[in-house]
Structures are given as structure tokens and as C-alpha cells.
Amino acid sequence: MSEHDDPYLWLEEVTADDAMAWVRKRNAETVAELTGSARFAELRDEIRAVFDADDRIPYVRRRGEYLYNFWQTPANPRGLWRRTTLEQYRLDEPDWEVLLDVDALGEAEGENWVWDGAAILRPGYRLALVNLSRGGADAAVVREFDLAKREFVPGGFELPEAKSFLRWIDADRVYVGTDFGPGSMTSSGYPRVVKEWQRGTPLTEAVTVFEGKPEDVSVYATHDPTPGYERDFVGRNIDFYRSERFLRTESGDLIRIDVPDDAETDVEREWLLITLRSPWTVGGTTYPAGALLATRFDDFLAGAREMDVLFEPDPHTSLTYHSWTKNHVLINTLHDVQSRIEVLTPGPDGWRRAPLTGVPTGALSEITDTDPDVSDEYLMNSSGYTEPATLRRGVVNGEPEILKQAPARFDATGIEVRQHFATSADGTKIPYFVVGKDDPIARPTLLSGYGGFEVSLTPGYLGHVGRAWLARGGTYVVANLRGGGEYGPNWHSQAVKANRHLVYEDFAAVARDLIDRGITTPDRLGIQGGSNGGLLMGVMLTHYPELFGAIVCQVPLLDMKRYHELLAGASWMAEYGDPRKPEEWAFIEPFSPYHNVRADAKYPPVLFATSTRDDRVHPAHARKMVARMREHGHDVRYYENIEGGHGAAADNEQLAFKWALVFEFLWEKLS
């Protein structure tokens, strides 16, 4: 099937009358099938209670003297942007200062606003750039907000709806990338041009400072206001993994930061940190993929190439991320998908390293915030599949204090967490976690995976999954597939483009291992994944249907012939390949689910879910797949939230409804 004889192209017109009529009809069928039982109502209410719980942790980010939080409740489903002090936050009931009520704003303006974050100007912390999305789309409007007056700035910086960025330079200047008209966006739908915009002048008078190429993914510009180290950077994202970076001088000259295109860089005060995706030979030394290197930024620009190795991977250990405090670097690593945190400290004799004090054992701990301009403070969140989250605040070299602890959301009595390794078709060991009762009963089992874009699936509390699935006797499994980042960049890079099939072989191997161990049976094994994980589900449906009893495919990529034409799809060609090239379409086509639906195949029942307002992965992927499966009489159902963006839900009510549909479908088909 070529795109020229694709009978369902009309479903790509997102809000066309005939397409939306088709969506509403499919929605009605699915809602009628899945929402009539008492169990659905229980699932929906229990899941909603998890999302809305008053005693969940209000996670915060420090900006100056305040801790900022975004909070959704049944009374404020679109949420409150608010702040408090550390002293107040330590209390059970902090006194929060509400900055912006998104529900009230939407009602006053007659808009369906969804919060999309804010950037606060350092170091004064008086002004913010607030992002608001209609219905949860990636495209957003940007408005300047006065934190002292708690109101939008009249005549301040403002952008209409687009996939934009607005970055502070100082109180009167910003970098802006947006849709300036024809030719100003890349083929991926992101800004191609960066301009400097002066307060009080129209956007049309903003001055171009940098341009990328039409085929680039995007461009960017940032200003680092760190006192004594103020710098500006611009760059172009050539593809999803490669970038070209420049220091922009006061005169507007650009100085190339000469690192490998696929490396990541971080400039903090006098230091340049480089994270390698591939081996790099420089200064007479070869550094391996996955290493973290440090050098002095000014020396590097001057030509010096002496590097300190802050982290070097081994077959079981990879770097997840690093975070700066004022005097230290915190590095978080994964050892067989178990987290470790170390403190690295520069000194006259090189870098010293030590474990971070007070990191709990047995849980996955992550640094959620630091304040590197000011102090060595950090916030650390720890949780496990069955261990509710604990938020700690520490200062490096001291014992951290517990700030908040979440209560359990489900009864975990008798539920254990085990790690196994399946053997993939090429002999590679694939780790996976099993969460459930350790008994000889083959239980209804839900297996989830992703396998792409260096994304690591790590243990975290299973809140709504625990309540809707584990507490009802189900088993939950997470597969750590190649394509992810669990073992560093090589774990990802060995499964891109022509080797994408390894991801699918890995997932099938985990499914077979679950069956061989007696943990479940094919008719009791359900799978679920979204986005790139939705593509994974589509391949499982079309290539391995005999292994599964039910499939949930959410906000998926499925038409891999046209994915690069749809919304942000062109930005992912570094992952999947370019279907316009015959030699690449040759390895894409066998795993394009839309092109591999067979009339005579026996598929397990499947639920597709997406959102009309998803402007990242086009809803037509799921629409067209469902239409083709219906054409051939297969057992398929479809639900499209009319808003909600790539998360497929704009508030907790919609989120609970979506997940209740998923779990009702799974319980109905697997039990």
C-alpha cells in the first residue's frame, strides 16, 4: 500500500467534520462497551482518588527565596500555580501564595487553558514567562507575568499560539523562536530562526541572531545569568541526537564549541562538561561512549584538550544525568537499572568523589532540584514500585531531612518486586521487573515497555496502577529494552534504524520468558505502551499476536511511511530512518504496523487511545490503523480524547477516565 492508494488519508484532517464524526462514533462505541459495569465506575473513582489525593507530595522547585508548585484538585482541575517558603513547606499544611488560578483564567477568557510551565527571570525572580496551551497541545501561547503583583504584565512580552520558545536575556530582552511566517519553521515544525526582542518594540522589529537549516529539527538560544559567568549560547539541533553549538559573544560573533555533534554539553561557571554518545579521540586519548568529561570552558575554547573523566561506563553501569550545586556535581547512575548517586568535587588536585550521604537503599532516588547559584542544597525524591515516595532536602556533606512522605495508595501485602533477565534472539540479556505476588498461579499480567530515544524505564511508585491492577490480583511487568538508556548510549544506538527490529525481539523475548516461568499465559498476558511505545504495541500486534491476550496502544506512531509528514515526525528520522529513501524504507516497511495489517490474521483484542489535541504524534496514526482493522473485521476499539495533547488528558478527571477504560478493557479480556 502506497500513500497514493491509502483510503484513509481523510482521517489525517484532524478537525475536519467527517473525521470528527468518525471519531465521535468510535468513541461512543467504546464508551458503551467499557463503561457500563460497576467495575468501571470503581476503577475510575479509585484512580481519580489517587490523582486528586490531598496528601500527595506537592513537588517544588526553588527559585530565590520561594518554593514553587503547580497543584490540581477536584475544585481546581486545571490547577493553581503557587509558592511558599521552606519554613512553611516543612509544615503539614503550608501557607501557599496562589500566583495564578488556571481555571479562573480560562473561565474569564473563555479559553480551554492547560498549564505548560513558566520560566522565572534570574536573579531577581520578579518576572516570569508563562506558557499556556489550548487543550494540552504542544503549541502554546506565552505571556509575561509579574510575580509580585500576581498578574500578567500589560504590554509585556507575549507570543500567540505556536511551537515557540521565549528565553530571558535580562528584564528588557528575550530570545524568541516562533512562527515568523513562511520559511521560519523547520520541516519538523519547530523554530528555525532565533531573534533578539527588545521590550516595548513589536515582534516584527526583533533582530535575527541565528538561523538553522530547514531540514534541522530546531534551533535554540539561551542566556546564562550566573554572576561573573554571564554567557549566551545558540545552536541548531541537526537531528534528534546531533547538535551544533556556539558561544555568542557581546558583539554577536559565534564561536563554535568544538565537541562531537552527538555529545551533550553543559557549561557551569568555569566548567564545561561533555557527555559522550559515541567514542571520542581527542588530545591523544580515546574516551568511550557514555563517559562524562570535564574541562575548563575558557581553556577549551582556547584549544586545550585535557579532560578529567568524571564517569566511565561498564557493562552494567550507565550515567543517567548530573546536577550542579554551587561547589559540587551530583551524578546519578544506573547499575542494572538500580540507582546510585555520587558527589564529585573539583579541587587543586583534581576531582574527589564520594557517595551522597543519606541516599536510601532499595529505592530509586533522583535529584529533583538544586540551587547552584546560591548553595549546595538539593532536593531528592525516592520511591520504588511498592514504596511510596519520600522527598528529602539536603546540603552536600550533611544528612538530608525528610520534607514530605506520601502514604500508600494500595495494599502491597504479599506483593514483591523481582528482577529477571530474558534472552533475546541475538543472545543479549534483557532485564525486566516483575511486580506482583510470588506464587505458582498464572495471573493476569500487564507488560509495559518503550525501547527508544534513550529513555530509561526505572522503578517508581505505581499509585494508580497499584490500585487498579496489583491490588486486584494482577501482575505488572516493566521491560528494559534496547533503544532505551538503561545501559548507556550503546544500549540505545544498537537498536536504531536498520536494527530497530532488536527492540521488538527484546520485548517478545520478555513475553516468552514470562510465559516460560509460569508467571502468566498468552491468554492472560496484556501489553500497554504509548508514543514510541505505541509503535512497539503495533509491531507486537502485527508480528507476535500469538503471545498476547489483549493490547493497549496509546498515542502511537503506526503509519511509518508518512510519519515524517505528520506534525513533529520529521524530528525522529534519526531514530527510525527516512521512508523517502528506498534503502531505508526497506527496513522500515516490515515494521510499519499500518502496512502489516492482514485480513486473514488472528489478532488479540486491542484498544487504541489518542487525543485530538496531540500535536506531537498525529492522531491519524491511531485513526487510520483502527479504520484498516475494522475494514478487515478485527476485534478493535478506539477512544480519542477531544483534548489533552500528547498525554491524552487535560486534567485528572479525563486522566482517570482514560485509565479506567484501559484497565476495564484489560480485566475484561484477561481475567
TrEMBL record:
Pfam families tied to this protein: Peptidase_S9, Peptidase_S9_N
Keyword Hydrolase in record: yes
Coiled coil region boundaries: none
Residue intervals of the Peptidase S9A N-terminal domain: 5-391
InterPro entries registered for this protein in UniProt: AB_hydrolase_fold, Pept_S9A_N, Peptidase_S9_cat, Peptidase_S9A, Prolyl_oligopep/macrocyclase
Keyword Protease: yes
Domain Peptidase S9 prolyl oligopeptidase catalytic: 469-670
Assigned keywords, A-Z: Hydrolase, Protease, Serine protease
Protein name (record): Prolyl oligopeptidase
Biological source species: Kibdelosporangium persicum
